[in-house]
Amino acid sequence: MSRAKVGSITVAEPWDKNLVNPVSNTNHEYLKFINTAVFSQEARHFLRHGHYCNAPYGSKDWTDYWDEQEKRCLDGYSVGGVRISGRHYFFLNFSMLKARPIDPVTGLEKDAKKIITFPRFLDHQYYLFLEIEECFAEGPHKESSLQGIIIAKSRRKGISFVNSGGVIGYNYNFVQASLTTIAAYESVHYNTLLNGTHFVLNHLNKNTDWAKRRQKVNRRDHFRASYVYTDSSGVELEGGYMSEVQAKSFKDDPFKAIGDSTYTMCFEEAGRFKGLLDAYTIAEPTFRDGDIMTGVPMIWGTGGDIEAGGKDLEEMFYNPSAYGLKAYNNIYDENAVGDCGWFIDDMWYMPGETKDRSHVLVDEHGNSYRDLAEKVLDDKRAVRSTGSRTAYRKFVTQQPKNPKEAFLRVDSSPFDTMRAQSRLTNILTDQKTYINSIYTAKFVIES
């Protein structure tokens, strides 16, 4: 790719080819961003002035402005050859979340308490949003089929906020009559996601041309964009955009989703979702019509509790196609053969600096310096490994380098279960080879 520019401003360039390419299992070029401010000009204007549009409300300029913003949110936005998806554009400019404030000089996060603000551009979210766009058959993929996505990840990568703004808030605002269901084992598991959604929608209602009433159904965990009116015959009716969001705990009933026709079902904290496979299987008819996907299931979580939901998350992650989920070549586990889901390791977006404080690990443009981050992670592991073995294994599952570490069994065994788990992962990632060898051995013995 040639250097992408806006006038004389460089937007992005390819990373050094000697670096390991963490998105080589996609069609995306591994980019180092030079100026990501071009993608969030509306958010920056709002932070400076407290509003988006200077034109009088209802004027032609006002209408033209919001028509253009809606177009970018629906079709995506390109600057100098680099394109972000429409959902990503909406997320950066119209979504709100709790985060540490950004230093206006350096562009880095301050050491301060979190505030409600706009998201910053992060490279790993750029690639994820492009994948989500394909799953929803949007932008350049409008002729494609819908498909789900499963994400195994390290902690603190902002994926709940990606979904509260870029998926749930976006659906509510731009997909008419859509039903988005937030599914979790316990209600406490979806609180962050639901709070984030309300931050987004309250901001839209107050500051944009996209305000939507919730007159008929308006609870914290279930609301619909509609209003109530009475026709000429005195009959009370419901009108409006009719997009809807509901949150459900599946703790006591895996059949909670029966009867709904769901556009998106978000399985939050899937690593802690007991009976995840049962709940997913029972819910499938709500987003699938035979072999045709009519909605998009999204599953994400961190491993570490393999006896709770982690076991089901692992099964689905390593066999995504069997569950209607997008499959990727497994470039993450060593010597792996076959496909898996989308994986976000701990080297993506690790705020901080190198040990000698000579270089940041994430710069002001949202680039993750993954090689430096891995060295910092290795130093952390060296310190943690001198303590409790169980605590160390738990630490590894929460900040993994690869999926096999994310799904590591955490126990108090005095034996080297990490090596045993590595062997088990080899089997899970190359089942055909190992199953064939078993059948071959059985055939030889019987013969």
Provide a descriptive summary of the structure in words.
The N and C termini lie far apart (58 Å). The chain is of the alpha/beta class and 447 residues long. The chain has 13 helices and 21 strands. An eight-stranded mixed β-sheet has the order 10-11-14-9-15-18-8-21, sandwiched between helices. The radius of gyration is 23 Å and the shape is globular. The chain is 36% helix and 17% strand.
What's the short story on this structure?
The protein is α/β, with parallel strands linked by helices and 447 residues long. It is built from 13 helices and 21 strands. It has helices at 41-49, 60-75, 86-94, 123-135, 159-174, 191-207, 276-287, 306-318, 370-384, 389-398, 403-406, 417-428, 431-446, and strands spanning 4-6, 9-14, 31-33, 77-79, 82-84, 97-99, 115-117, 149-153, 179-184, 218-219, 222-224, 227-230, 236-239, 244-249, 264-267, 288-289, 292-293, 296-301, 328-329, 339-340, 342-344.
